[in-house]
Amino acid sequence: MQRFRRPSGIVAASVGVLTLLGMMANLAGCSCGADVQFTPSKDHVTITADGKPIAVYRHDESLTKPVLHPVYSPSGEVVNRTYPLGEVEGESKDHPHQVGVFFTYDDVNGVGFWNNTTAPPRIKHLGFTKVRRGYGKGTLGAILHWIDKDGAVLLVEERTMEFRVHKDAYLIDFNIELRAVRESVTFGDTKEGMLAIRVADWLREKGGTGKYLNAQGQRNAAKVWGKRSAWMQLEGQKENTTVGVAILNHPESVNYPTFWFARGYGLFAANPLGQHAFERALKVDNAQPLHLKLAPNEKALFKFRMIIYEGQKDQEAMEAEFADYTKREPVKTTYHEEKKSVEE
């Protein structure tokens, strides 16, 4: 079922570095836990917990979309691939548009925002709506414009990212609303979207140590690709430490549960809008297009939680994480592997 939210007004704020510094003084949350802080610069914001890095939000003019890069585990391991924003000897260099953690889509009124490495089109960061330091949790809000090749704004994006510190885990909650502006906007069904991370080579399945697992108990990229699932994890080994990245989809999000564009080479993406592309590839009978359409000023809500954790999380542990995110009772089900799979 598609879920849309009508706008109740939008705060079109554009906040400079000085204002951002002033906003940092606000404290939120409980009086316990790590101190989550935001340190601004001209083209990025560094997010830390008690001085340890969590991530860097980058909105440089040279980027075709804002990204989180790098993203760290609690012990300081970088879980995303460094390329193309840096050089690591022996690291893969395919798909240069897959940068860190990003949110984008490749068919918005026929305009591709996924594969582009030069602008236009681009998703442009305009400014911050909220910067709230806190103990155990900090919040960063931003306004972005999705701009086509002719310079027209197709969508206004209101994004809130909440950075939470748990034992042996960093959590990033993405609450994203996309609003059509002057004309209707249609999202074509394509596999290339939406909330994604290009993981470090050591965490990928092909040539790395990572293995995918979804909420149905299916494992490996060939069996989870294109399937619907409420959550997905990719867990591997870095030296003697188990490190994982999990993405959870909230039931309030559009077209829940999301489809997954999960590849063995290192792309890990949740894509709720690519319905027909995935169902057709999996040879689903009577595959149905979604073709999400927003009228002017209509909004669509996308909600995800990304967990970067250390220590093994089995299926029961992931169900508990999902219950915590959605405030639901954990699901206890015995799953059976499906025989049919799709190769990459």
The total beta strand count reads 20
Number of helices: 4
Here the CATH topology equals Beta-galactosidase, Chain A, domain 5
Rg is: 19 Å
The appropriate CATH architecture is Distorted Sandwich
Largest sheet report: 14 strands, mixed
The quaternary state of the protein chains shown equals: single chain
* Helicity, as a percent range: under 10%
End-to-end distance, in Å? 28 Å
- Structure class: mainly beta
As for the number of domains, it is 1
What is the molecular shape? globular
Low-confidence stretches: 1-19, 21-31, 333-344
Overall mean confidence score, pLDDT? 89
CATH class: Mainly Beta
Q: How does this model look, in words?
A:
It is a single chain. The protein has helices at 17-23, 221-224, 275-281, 315-326; strands spanning 4-5, 27-29, 35-40, 44-49, 52-58, 67-71, 101-105, 122-135, 137-147, 153-166, 169-180, 185-186, 193-198, 211-214, 231-238, 241-249, 259-262, 267-271, 293-294, 299-310. It has 344 residues and is mainly β. It has a single domain, classed as Beta-galactosidase, Chain A, domain 5, CATH 2.70.98. Strands 1, 2, 3, 4, 5, 6, 8, 9, 10, 11, 14, 15, 16 and 20 form a 14-stranded mixed beta sheet that branches. Strands 7-13-18-17 form a 4-stranded antiparallel beta sheet, with no helix packed on it. Strand 5 and strand 6 (67-71) form a beta hairpin. The model is unreliable at 1-19, 21-31 and 333-344 (pLDDT under 50).
